[in-house]
Amino acid sequence: MSNIKYSIIIPVYNAEKFLKECLFSVLSSDRSDIEIIAIDDGSTDNSLQILKSIQSLDHRLMIFSQKNAGVSAARNKGLLEATGEWILFLDSDDYFTTEPFNYFDWIIASHINCKVFYFSSKADKAISMDLFRQDVVLATLGTRGIKNEFTELCQFSSVWSRLYNSNDIKTNGMTFDTDLVMGEDLFFNLKIQSFVKEIVLSTFSYYFYRNNSDSITHKLNTEIPLKDYLFQHKLLKYCESNNFKKVIDLAYNKSVLEGILVSCNTCFHRYPWNQYITARRAFFQFINQEPYKTILKKKINYRDFNILQGTILWCAKHNFFFPGYFIRSGVTLYQNKK
């Protein structure tokens, strides 16, 4: 039996609906050399009780509780407590579709100099928006626009479906940026790719990503654009300070355009009819600040986007607020047909 120890870090917040499926997908392995680190991030439902009941059945599950501080703080706590040689992140509403550890043993032994492995994954729904930001991560590798089986199934900017060397993370003081609510995974990968010499991409798929829309509410949530604004400014500052010129040249403009799409989908196109004027005003304030204002003035390659996303960007470029309900209905129809 392998002597490689794996640490699986699971942030948990009000996850009672899917938590058992998540945990049992890992605990079904008979491997003794794994530790499952669950961080309850101030849940107000039965998540903590579920964790304790499962821990009583399996000592490999470790539980830590903290006041609600967000997923980044929870993952940082997991990194602090992890004792495994290799680290994986698992979201509490996702699960492992197969036992991956024997394959991990083999691929680690086959690539002894590699410190990060990217694997494929499956999702219950099409993932559209965040795929644009994979160009940011690809640019740190000196490439972009890879089109093959791997990149069609996987998001480069996420931390799930990844295998990270624990020693490298701790030696380089790697943590998640707790100021960010959007793009924190991408920053984690950018930092890692700045010092590792080899990354292995594999089409092996063991991870199922549940695109959970329960948390998306029908309201004008202006916090989303503010979060993207912070992300875009931190991204540019980080790339400039680390001389990531390729990221700026190849991917930063596209990241800003995606920020507009995300903000429209989660904020400006989600409002009761009686808040139309408020939503319209907030939208124009958003796109007329930097970096959105400058990027929208540049030429947009609409071929990089589907017709609905291109419509939103065209409207933003020409200072036109397209009625959000029609866009949202069209996006839903488009995604259901895919």
From TrEMBL:
A GO molecular function held by the record: glycosyltransferase activity
Domain spans labelled Glycosyltransferase 2-like: 7-98
Keywords of this entry: Glycosyltransferase, Transferase
The EC number(s) this enzyme carries: 2.4.-.-
Superkingdom classification of source: Bacteria
Keyword Transferase: yes
CDD domains: Glyco_tranf_GTA_type
Enzyme class of the recorded protein, top EC level: transferase
Signal peptide range in chain numbering: none
Entry-linked InterPro entries: Glyco_trans_2-like, Nucleotide-diphossugar_trans
Pfam families: Glycos_transf_2
PANTHER family reported for this sequence: GLYCOSYLTRANSFERASE, GLYCOSYLTRANSFERASE EPSH-RELATED
Protein name: Glycosyltransferase, group 2 family protein
Organism: Faecalibacterium prausnitzii M21/2
Lineage: Bacteria, Bacillati, Bacillota, Clostridia, Eubacteriales
